[in-house]
Amino acid sequence: MNVYLQLQHVLFVTILFCSSHFCQGVPTPCNDYYAGACYKAVATTVTWETARQKCIDDWNGQLFVPTHPEEQDHAYGILLRDIPSGNTWIGLTRASNTYDVLTVEGKIQTFLSWNTNEPNGYPSAMCMEIIRSNGKLNDHGCTVQRNYLCKYYPSKEQCLDVMPGSGKCYIAQNEWATWDEGRQDCADRYGGDLAYIGNAATQNHVNAIVSRDLSAISSYSAKNNTWIGMYIPSNSNVLLKAGGTVTGTYTNWEIGSPSGTAAGQYCIQGQISGNGLWNDSDCTYIFPFVCEYIPDVDDCLEGTHTCDQNCQNEPGIGAFSCSCNDGYQLSMDGHQCLEIVYHGCFEDGNDRALPIGVSTSDTMTRETCIEYCQQNQAVIACQDRLGVEDGRISDAQITASTEFTDSVYHGANNARLNHVAQPSISTGAWSVQTNDGNQWIQTAFGHPTRVTGVLIQGRQDGGQWVTKFKVKYSHNGDDWTDVQQINGEMIFDGNTDRTTVVTNLFLVPVIASFIRIIPTEWNGHISMRFELLGCEDYKCSAGWEESNNYCYFVSSDSKTYADAKAYCNDRSSHLTSFHTQDEIDFIARKFVLLNPDTPAEAVLREWSIVSPFTKDIETYCL
Question: Residue 302: exposed, middle, or buried by beta-carbon count in 10 A (0-12, 13-18, 19+)?
Fold first, then answer.
């Protein structure tokens, strides 16, 4: 590394670490935005240590440390405008008996614009101030009272450069860093990563930001490079995103690039001037960099949500989730709260039923009610989230057919609803190795569980999602049965973007020890996050008998197979089938009680070919 690079590495002084205060992401207004940072001059005189703490507490930042002449000139202009008189503390100190000037983070500072005959406080410990009369630096005892200048970064709630149509914010950082250091700063400050440029529109957007914020800084424009979020691994010619996934087809290489050897990893930089042409460099070189992140606007606080009762903010613009008060359940759109009823219909005890949204005087037959509720997508009772999202279902209980390249980054454990990518740890969803119709992801509950629906979501950190899928359930993990959604179709609708949570309810709740989701159509790549709906502590209704964690209803009426099946389906159940010896014994005992003169084995052989059962409303029809 040449001397120029070494000196500039020392100049990388802005916040590389995360103090307990600095990383809280407290929303603060961005004052005097300049090249990726915000500045606040405070005309209140305090000691240097008090000033340092006030910058942390009040502005979620630190005392200002200049990284280049243009930034110091910018800061000096702010002081002249906002501070009527007196000198101003900045974030530089010198310990006793040393000439080294350190930043607030303990790094040696080499860019120092001293006033004439300064520094002159050796060997005493000193703190640095900007002289109001000329903007130069002076050293002084740290306990005197001075104004102070804070430097901080826009919070996730404040995106100054949202790219239209992407929902992402891009921000240039006016400091020097290695590629890995830049990634870490993007994660610490914004929960993001180095900017990935996957198309010409993003390239143009980033070019405009870099040109505006960095090209006027002489030390940056002389180097003419800025880190972006792509790299080429050692002994490879494959271009990867910062998170480890393969990039798209778009490239913007300058002539002769990439030119790195296979011996080491090479990271990608874009030109500050011109059209941002790419070049590959040693990842330990230092350049300014560009971050991308999903901004966080509190839609619940701003009143821009559409929740009927309760709103909870989610990361991103227009991202929120809704919940309902006790006795209510979310509707199919995930926003409206409807009173909980069974399969959308409340029976009045006289073979009459009341659908949702109809007054008590407008009762109808059960058959008409169920048809009405299915057409209007009425809510089904028992729709608790079963634990994929919050971790009650463990990683070991979530398995998949394949995982892309490396399960550390793309594994099934990333498929939890609302999972967020973690740099160098995980991507924002489960992703398959091969895009075909043979892929699946499944949950093993460990015990029979009533399942009533599924929530599905795309990949948080990329334009990949499942648009259509099937759901199957099983009692033993070997024999699988298709689940119908509430309109009777076998194919469920998935996502149209990567953030929206889509709710799909089952036509009839199922009892399952395993649930498997099988993508059939997708956007970009098969990647998804999900949650399952149902309940674990649901009790059998009156007139139903519990056995082996299931509920049964026994009818002594004689019916044909078709009529018996319809009879069960009308009661939101299926005809019983047999999966264990305990179940066979239970059904045989019930049959013998009703038909003492008929051998049970004959009846069991006749009825064992019917559809699988569902929990809580399981019916054994004779």
Answer: exposed
**Residue 532 Cα distances to 386, 443, 512, 535, angstroms:** 6, 9, 12, 10
Give the type of residue at 546.
E
Q: How far is CA 223 from CA 157, 231, 267, 286, 567, in A?
A: 32, 19, 16, 10, 78
d(CA 129, CA 144): 11
pLDDT of residue 477: 87
CB atoms within 10 A of CB 339: 12
**What is the pLDDT, as a whole number, of residue 579?**
55
Long-range own/partner contacts, residues 255-261 (CB < 8 A, 24 or more apart):
258/232, 260/232
* CA separation for the pair 106, 284 (Å, rounded): 21
Q: How many CB atoms lie within 10 A of CB 412?
A: 22
pLDDT for position 31: 76
Q: Tell which CATH classification among 3.10.100.10, 3.40.30.10, 3.30.1280.10, 3.40.720.10 matches the domain 169-293.
A: 3.10.100.10
Q: Quick one: 498 exposed, middle or buried, by C-beta within 10 A (0-12, 13-18, 19+)?
A: buried
Chain centroid to Cα 528, Å, comes to 11
Q: How far is Cα 527 from Cα 542, in angstroms, rounded to an integer?
A: 43
Helix axes 581-594, 600-607, angle to 10 degrees: 120
The lowest-confidence range among 106-115, 388-397, 524-533, 580-589 is 580-589
Q: Say whether pLDDT at 265 is over 70.
A: no
pLDDT tens digit sequence for 159-168: 777 787 777 8
Output helix, strand, coil percentages for the chain, rounded to the nearest 5. 20, 30, 50
Q: Do the Cβ atoms of 553 and 573 come closer than 8 Å?
A: yes
Within 13 Å of residue 7, how many CA atoms lie on the same side as its CB? 8
pLDDT at 577: 59
pLDDT of residue 581: 65
For range 340-353, the mean pLDDT: 40
CATH superfamily of 299-375: Laminin (2.10.25.10)
Backbone angles phi, psi at 263, to 5 degrees: -70, -30
Query: In terms of C-beta density within 10 A (0-12 exposed, 13-18 middle, 19 or more buried), how is residue 79 classed?
Result: buried
Residue 116's Cβ-count burial label (10 Å; 0-12, 13-18, 19+) is exposed
Predicted structure pTM score: 0.44
Measured between alpha carbons, how far is 595 from 128 in angstroms, rounded to an integer?
A: 98
Specify whether the CB–CB gap between 204 and 161 falls below 8 A: no
- 3-152 classified as CATH 3.30.1050.10: no
Domain 384-535, CATH: 2.60.120.260
Place of tokens 């606080």: 301
Helix axes 366-375, 561-570, angle to 10 degrees: 60
